[in-house]
Write a structure and sequence with these properties.
27 helices, seven-stranded mixed sheet, alpha/beta, 960 residues
């Protein structure tokens, strides 16, 4: 059944995967030169596992077995192996069979028998589950739709692998054997299972890096100074309680201690007598491969490469970076860097500072990820200034600066933070997004439980920094912002805004709405705050202005009253220094006012967010950010313990927002800002995020349509691609002829109004007679397409004379008919001209766009975007989110148009591109939306062969 071309080694099946315990393995096709590896692997498998595989004692493989298991046609017979360190740890194979369970000899057989063998030392790591995902994807690619497996009843582990996969399956028992049959079409349950396993595995891989039991610093200098010695010093000063080793090939042999640190020194990692969990590498790039090899052979779990000289240095460095990544993954290790700044974990039982930061930040609820070491320094420094010390408002839980992010990325940290009880807010500074589709998926899931705040550099250059070997995202930055908003991500522009938003979200409950109370002892500052609220789309109440000499008690009373007001969702307190009776500043005014504000905020029920704007009152900001004295801090509650929402303010992730003495409500930490605009902007971001959270609880649905012909559309697409392949490169997008594009759209209930070519006036008249008057005459030349402002469209032509006159005017004014390509179309009811597009970005996936045709979308960029598949809620919000949306809803007395029909059309376009990844572009322009119904007047569709893998495929680590 196979074809010669199919026997070529399928390199695109190779993949690196993260296993259940956080280690990695390489999955690849088995090839003829793997014979010795297979024999060695089989020798390390227990007799019991061999019995489960072959249903009989099978102590060794014969030469015939080895040949059969290493020679495949990669169509009807396929074998995959999971490898670590270049050696097999597990295998899986399928053989195509017919309806009677015999080897298939005729075309059309779509069933295969599948079997696994996992080395005993690696059982329980999730290897078989990962192999099942990949062999199923391979089988689907080769036209196999169903797997069958025969398993002994005692082999409960393998039965569980099949039954837990989430596929639709049947189970029978006959002749002492369990027979499982299951469809390979991904289901909602199988996707949920796969992504759940992905999250747990990737989170575990990050956790192993953040909480190592031992750390080796490789490249530690013999004298103080230098990168390696600085990291060692930082590690020891942080209070890290694990084992620490210094490694330098210049150390004396026989073991030594590095003074004054008193750390064991070794010349190489293999000389360390105990296991090493994390290796921090600070040696020249040329020496890194030897160090990585030593680490891999010693069983090190993860690497932090501080060394530079990789992709940031040019093409040669880029290849060096790819090589070191392949080497690290071949040993099952995750890698941070190269050119990294390091990582930090402030958990009291870890206290790890394996970075170049000279001081361990205070412990808190904020998780930080940066790709830039410089921005990492700025964030750590900025947070320290806003609240130093453990338990302060600016404390962090974890920090990781990934440098060139060859392996570990922001996606991995989102997987970790998703269910990390120590992190309430995730802050990321990104310069590139290696897998935007996955990032949006993970960000949306994380944002449903805790805020995700992102600042992105390199927004306008369209390229990633030199060190980042990632695919270029071709969609505009404005589209990226829209997709982030859809995913619930709070996007900001600067490092300062990252900190401002993070402090408020980490310390305050989410607001129930946009109504803001303003109070303070300065009318001018209150009015600035009022104006800032209006600018940010909030609804400020009339400011409550206290006397200039208002006391802390006055502030406390006013704040308590504002929080008790049912018409207020949040409070902004403004404060300027006040003067005492003796004409001098009141001593301790900052601490006294902070205590008063905290007293009022802690007594509020229900809790509402409070933020402070101050001028020249740094002591107030410091007092509000500082934790209570350590002696008064209670032991942390169990994460599973229920929270009393009326007594303790809750952060956006639902954890207590402050600390206090035992038996009393927690003392809230209140963010303070030196400018009204910064405080209000952060509050507005919290308001929008809270609304997104409420809306996300009911995300809508992707409707089913009885009139959609999905199978017929798929057959049309296959036929059209075969036809296009004869004269075009279908790995790139190719436009369909208009009649084929219209027929394909009709399969999805999207009719396109006919347009008859009119190369001369007589042809135009005959076309109009067939269509019936009135008609429209328009040009379709590329330089005039969708440009009614140039006069290329004539409407409401009611008879032959008008049509001939309009034809003459067009050709006299704009050019010859062969240049203009005029067409005749029937008139449709007047309405609002809109444009709908769907485009596939190789990195971001399918994006559905909507705007008004002409200047609003083309000149002003007033376009709304949503990820595909879009739900009914998505498209309803989409058409209402553009600035020109009032034109659809009866602006200035005009008649509202049929937005229900518009939403239906958007959903049908979304379904088309979601059901058929070969459809890489759809343009509907113009779509005239009338008060009743709509009309699609022109449409183009572009096709291309889809990539081999997508976000719906088996889990794999990116390879750039």
């Amino acid at each position: 059944m196979q074809s010669p071309s199919d026997s070529v080694y399928p390199a695109h099946w190779e993949a690196d995967v993260v296993l259940r315990d956080g280690g990695t393995a390489r999955i690849r096709p088995i090839a003829p030169d793997d014979a010795q590896r297979l024999v060695s692997f089989y020798e390390q498998v227990s007799d019991e596992s061999k019995y489960y595989r072959f249903f009989a004692p099978y102590p060794r493989l014969s030469d015939r077995d080895v040949h059969r298991f290493t020679h495949h046609d990669y169509v009807d017979r396929v074998g995959l192996a999971a490898t670590v360190g270049g050696e097999f740890i597990a295998t899986v194979r399928y053989d195509r069979i017919d309806d009677r369970g015999r080897p298939a000899k005729e075309p059309g057989a779509d069933q295969a028998e599948v079997a696994f063998l996992v080395q005993d030392a690696h059982q329980g790591r999730g290897v078989a589950s990962a192999l099942l995902e990949h062999i199923a994807a391979v089988a689907r690619e080769r036209g196999i739709r169903r797997f069958a497996a025969e398993v002994l009843p005692a082999n409960t582990k393998m039965i569980k692998v099949f039954t837990d996969a989430g596929y639709t399956q049947q189970r029978t028992f006959e002749d002492g054997v369990v027979r499982l049959e299951f469809d390979l079409e991904p289901t909602e349950q199988s996707m949920a299972v796969m992504r759940g396993r992905e999250q747990r595995a990737e989170a575990r891989s990050v956790q192993r890096l953040l909480a190592p039991g031992s750390v080796a610093v490789i490249g530690t200098g013999r004298t103080p100074g230098g990168v390696g010695r600085s990291v060692l010093r930082n590690l020891l000063d942080s209070g890290y309680g694990g084992r620490v080793y210094a490694v330098n090939h210049a150390f004396p042999g026989g073991g030594a201690h590095l003074d004054p640190e008193g750390v064991p020194g070794h010349r190489s990692v293999p000389e360390i007598p105990e296991p090493v969990d994390l290796a921090v590498i600070a040696v020249p790039a040329a020496q890194v491969p030897d160090v990585v090899r030593d680490c891999g052979e010693h069983g090190v779990r993860g690497l932090v490469i501080l060394s530079s000289g990789y992709a940031e240095s040019g093409p040669e460095g880029r290849e060096r970076q790819r090589a070191v990544l392949r080497q690290a993954r071949s040993y099952g290790m995750r890698l941070i860097g190269p050119n990294a700044f390091g990582l930090i974990n402030t958990a009291p039982d870890v206290r790890l500072n394996a970075s170049l930061a000279p001081q361990l930040p205070g412990a808190g609820r904020i998780g930080l990820f940066t790709q830039s070491g410089a921005i990492g320094i700025a964030l750590l420094s900025g947070l320290h200034r806003r609240g130093p010390g453990d338990g302060s408002i600016a404390g962090i839980s974890t920090f990781l600066s990934a440098g060139n992010r060859a392996d570990l990325s922001g996606n991995d940290l989102l997987q970790y933070w998703y269910d990390d009880p120590a992190t309430d807010v995730a802050i990321l500074y990104l310069e590139s997004i290696g897998d935007p589709r996955k990032f949006m998926r993970l960000a949306r899931r994380t944002a449903a439980g805790k805020p995700v705040v992102v600042a992105k550099g390199a927004r306008h250059t369209g390229t990633a920094p030199l060190g980042h070997t990632v695919p270029t995202v071709r969609i505009p930055d404005s589209t990226v912002s829209a997709l982030m908003r859809q995913a619930g991500v709070i996007r900001v522009d600067t490092v300062t805004e990252l900190i401002d938003a993070g402090l408020l979200l980490a310390s305050q409950p989410l607001p129930d709405g946009p109504r803001v109370a303003i109070l303070g002892n300065s009318e001018a500052l209150a009015l600035l705050t009022y104006d800032a609220c209006l600018t940010e789309g909030l609804r400020p109440l009339r400011p409550h202005v206290l006397a200039a000499a208002a006391t802390p008690e006055d502030f406390c009373t006013a704040l308590a009253a504002a929080l008790a007001n049912g018409l207020c969702d949040a409070v902004v307190v403004t404060a300027i220094p006040w003067v005492g009776e003796e004409g001098v500043a009141s001593p301790g005014e900052g601490a006294d006012l902070a205590a008063a504000l905290r007293e009022a905020a802690s007594a509020a029920a229900p809790a509402k967010p409070v933020t402070v704007v101050h001028l020249a009152m740094d002591a107030l900001a410091d007092a509000l950010a500082a934790p209570p004295p350590p002696a008064a801090t209670p032991a942390p509650a169990s994460p599973a313990a229920p929270a009393d929402a009326t007594a303790a303010p809750l952060t956006p992730s639902g954890t207590p927002g402050g600390t206090g003495s035992p038996g009393s409500p927690p003392v809230p930490l209140i963010p303070a800002y030196p400018a009204a605009e910064r405080a209000v902007r952060s509050l507005a971001q919290a308001v929008r995020y809270a609304k997104w959270r409420r809306d996300a609880a009911d995300p809508g649905r992707v409707p089913e349509y009885e009139d959609i012909e999905e199978a017929a559309a798929g057959a049309d697409i296959d036929r059209l691609l075969d036809e296009l392949a004869r004269h075009a490169d279908i790995t790139r997008s190719v436009p369909l002829p208009p009649e084929d594009a219209h027929a394909l759209l009709a399969r999805y209930g999207i009719p396109v109004r006919p347009a008859h070519p009119a190369p001369d006036p007589d042809t135009a008249v005959r076309a109009a007679a067939r269509l019936g008057y009135p008609v429209a005459l328009k040009t379709t030349a590329p330089h005039l397409r969708h440009r009614p402002d140039l006069g290329g469209v004539r409407l409401d032509l009611t008879g032959e004379a008008e049509l001939r006159r309009a034809y003459a005017e067009l050709t006299d004014f704009l050019g010859k008919p062969e240049e203009l390509r005029p067409v005749v179309q029937p008139m449709v009811p007047r309405g609002v001209d809109t444009v709908i597009r769907a485009a596939i970005d190789p990195a971001a996936g399918a994006v559905l766009s909507f705007g008004l045709a002409g200047a609003p979308s083309q000149l002003l960029g007033d376009t709304a975007h949503r990820l595909v598949p879009a739900t009914d809620r998505d498209v309803a919000e989409q058409i209402r989110s553009i600035r020109a949306a009032p034109l659809l809803f009866g602006w200035r007395g005009s008649q509202p148009v049929d937005t229900a029909a518009l939403e239906d059309l958007l959903l049908r376009v979304s379904r088309l591109v979601d059901d058929h990844p070969e459809v890489v572009g759809v343009d509907l322009e113009p779509v005239v939306v009338a008060p009743h119904g709509l009309a699609v007047l022109d449409a183009t569709v572009r096709l291309a062969r889809p990539p081999a893998t997508t976000d719906l495929g088996p889990r794999r680590l990116p390879a750039y």
